């Protein structure tokens, strides 16, 4: 539970695309104090495009343009020396420059400003991402929404994460995130053209495991030193 949130958000029309990677490779991308978590013998990396909505700090109303925008994250799964599991972000792309600046300044997260869109059409979702100032770095995905998925060990490992890690002033820090459990559905990827993982130092040639969700409402806590 986040008792004193510093930010409210909704993560809507989200798709989770996941690939296996050798744990030693992912470990090489992490800062001291974090260890790559394994499931079924592998580390995992996710590409998660979604629509950010209702973004606001406490007491302030959401603003129509500023509070609603697409975002795409490249993330992996880690734990710290206290055994607390969470997310480590390899990159985050967002379509609003103020959000990029706030994420970089407030949480020292590797945000990038990008031209992006999320288009929802019945049981299909199309995501588009073009990173500004970095010619050729993009992430496009088209998915079809399938049947509901019952919770299982793998989906819990990949999606039920309530903590992020970052590095502030050279020290490991963490922030808690509160939201309901994900209500997941299977997703069929009909088109995927991305090199966001490659830009983060990874190569993903196999087809990803894909899930999607209508979304959750989120409360974000302030960061603290680990």
Fold blueprint:
Blueprint: E1 7-21, H1 23-27, E2 34-36, E3 43-56, E4 69-80, E5 85-94, H2 97-107, E6 111-121, E7 124-131, E8 139-148, H3 153-159, E9 163-168, E10 171-178, E11 184-194, H4 196-199, E12 209-220, E13 224-225
Parallel strand pairs: 5-6, 5-9
Antiparallel strand pairs: 1-3, 1-12, 2-4, 3-4, 4-5, 6-7, 7-8, 8-11, 9-10, 10-12, 10-13, 11-12
**Cα separation of the termini:** 18 Å
Rg over alpha carbons: 16 Å
Beta-strand portion reads over 45%
What's the mean pLDDT score? 97
Number of strands: 13
**What spatial form do the alpha-carbon principal axes imply?**
globular
- Summed up, the helix count is 4
Plain-language structure description:
The structure is a single chain. With 226 residues, the chain is mainly beta. Helix content is 12%, strand content 54%. The protein has 4 helices and 13 strands. It has helices spanning 23-27, 97-107, 153-159, 196-199, and strands spanning 7-21, 34-36, 43-56, 69-80, 85-94, 111-121, 124-131, 139-148, 163-168, 171-178, 184-194, 209-220, 224-225. Strands 1, 2, 3, 4, 5, 6, 7, 8, 9, 10, 11, 12 and 13 form a 13-stranded mixed sheet that branches. A hairpin with a 2-residue loop joins strand 6 and strand 7 (124-131). It starts with 6 loop residues before the first strand and ends with a strand. The relative contact order is 0.23. The mean pLDDT is 97.
């Amino acid at each position: 539970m986040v008792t004193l949130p510093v930010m409210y958000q909704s993560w809507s029309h989200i798709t989770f695309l996941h690939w296996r990677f050798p744990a030693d490779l992912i470990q090489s991308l992490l800062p001291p104090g974090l260890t790559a978590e394994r499931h079924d013998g592998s580390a995992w990396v996710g590409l998660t495009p979604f629509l950010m909505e209702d973004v606001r700090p406490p007491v302030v109303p959401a603003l129509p343009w500023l509070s609603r925008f697409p975002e795409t994250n490249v993330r992996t799964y880690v734990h710290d020396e206290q055994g607390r599991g969470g997310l480590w972000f390899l990159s985050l792309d967002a379509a609003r420059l103020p959000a990029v600046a706030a994420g970089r300044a407030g949480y020292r997260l590797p945000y990038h400003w990008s031209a992006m869109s999320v288009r929802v059409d019945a049981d299909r979702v199309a995501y588009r991402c073009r990173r500004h100032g970095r010619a050729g770095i993009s992430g496009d995905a088209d998915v079809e929404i399938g049947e509901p998925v019952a919770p299982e060990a793998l989906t819990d490992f990949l999606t039920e994460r309530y903590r992020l890690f970052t590095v502030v002033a050279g020290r490991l820090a963490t922030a808690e995130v509160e939201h309901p459990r994900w209500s997941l559905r299977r997703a069929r990827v009909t088109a995927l053209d991305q090199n966001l993982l490659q830009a983060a130092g990874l190569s993903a040639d196999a087809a990803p495991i894909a899930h999607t969700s209508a979304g959750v409402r989120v409360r974000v806590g302030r960061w603290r030193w680990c």
